[in-house]
């Protein structure tokens, strides 16, 4: 995925995208984290399709997430691997929901999900997302200390969770580029502008 908002920074766009927007959602600009509130079904089998298909970048993100968290490289993910792979793609589901998704895909009762089932499930989930709601939810997951801003500490945590090796200068460059009011942090409005500006 390429985006003009990433062009002037000293980072590679792909690395920065995975931190600020690991589950790129085409022109509408989606968020890094998702998953409905407790009790709300987010089943890939009960969704409305906002778009007919994923972008090539989204398909690549799905493959990269699977490969990254298929730690034993056996072509399948277990519950724990599935949960972190889904989170990297923007779906921070509760344990029961992840188990339900795994059980639906695991017809053989092996306790694993193979790549084809993972790709199908993630495709359905990605196509069902509401971009503005997702961006707001993403912001809250970045802002884990509830300050109303994304600080360099928040970015450092997310980069670490996603396995992205960003040094302090790179993290600071991200803050500075998108910190429109120059207060040293990224507000919800600034975060919205970053995500909705992508095309």
TrEMBL record:
<keyword id="KW-0479">Metal-binding</keyword>
<dbReference type="InterPro" id="IPR018247">
    <property type="entry name" value="EF_Hand_1_Ca_BS"/>
</dbReference>
<feature type="domain" description="EF-hand">
    <location>
        <begin position="57"/>
        <end position="92"/>
    </location>
</feature>
<feature type="compositionally biased region" description="Low complexity">
    <location>
        <begin position="21"/>
        <end position="43"/>
    </location>
</feature>
<dbReference type="GO" id="GO:0005509">
    <property type="term" value="F:calcium ion binding"/>
</dbReference>
<dbReference type="InterPro" id="IPR002048">
    <property type="entry name" value="EF_hand_dom"/>
</dbReference>
<keyword id="KW-0677">Repeat</keyword>
<dbReference type="InterPro" id="IPR050230">
    <property type="entry name" value="CALM/Myosin/TropC-like"/>
</dbReference>
<dbReference type="Pfam" id="PF13499">
    <property type="entry name" value="EF-hand_7"/>
</dbReference>
<dbReference type="GO" id="GO:0030474">
    <property type="term" value="P:spindle pole body duplication"/>
</dbReference>
<protein>
    <submittedName>
        <fullName>Ca2-binding ef-hand superfamily protein</fullName>
    </submittedName>
</protein>
<dbReference type="GO" id="GO:0005825">
    <property type="term" value="C:half bridge of spindle pole body"/>
</dbReference>
<dbReference type="GO" id="GO:0016460">
    <property type="term" value="C:myosin II complex"/>
</dbReference>
<dbReference type="InterPro" id="IPR011992">
    <property type="entry name" value="EF-hand-dom_pair"/>
</dbReference>
<feature type="domain" description="EF-hand">
    <location>
        <begin position="130"/>
        <end position="165"/>
    </location>
</feature>
<keyword id="KW-0106">Calcium</keyword>
<feature type="region of interest" description="Disordered">
    <location>
        <begin position="1"/>
        <end position="55"/>
    </location>
</feature>
<feature type="domain" description="EF-hand">
    <location>
        <begin position="166"/>
        <end position="199"/>
    </location>
</feature>
């Amino acid at each position: 995925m390429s985006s003009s908002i990433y062009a002037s920074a000293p980072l590679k766009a792909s690395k920065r995208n995975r931190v600020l927007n690991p589950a790129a959602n085409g022109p509408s600009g989606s968020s890094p984290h998702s998953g409905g509130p407790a009790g709300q079904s987010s089943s890939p089998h009960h969704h409305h399709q906002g778009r007919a298909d994923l972008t090539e970048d989204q398909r690549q993100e799905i493959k990269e997430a699977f490969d990254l968290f298929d730690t034993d490289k056996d072509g399948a993910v277990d519950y724990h691997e599935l949960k972190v792979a889904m989170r990297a793609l923007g779906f921070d589901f509760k344990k029961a929901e992840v188990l339900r998704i795994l059980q639906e895909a695991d017809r053989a009762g092996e306790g694993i999900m193979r790549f084809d089932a993972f790709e199908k499930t993630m495709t359905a989930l990605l196509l069902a997302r509401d971009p503005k709601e997702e961006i707001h939810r993403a912001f809250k997951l970045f802002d884990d200390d509830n300050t109303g801003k994304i600080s360099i500490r928040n970015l450092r945590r997310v980069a670490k969770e996603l396995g992205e090796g960003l040094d302090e200068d790179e993290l600071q460059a991200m803050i500075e580029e998108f910190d429109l009011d120059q207060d040293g942090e990224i507000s919800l409005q600034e975060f919205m502008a970053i995500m909705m500006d992508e095309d």
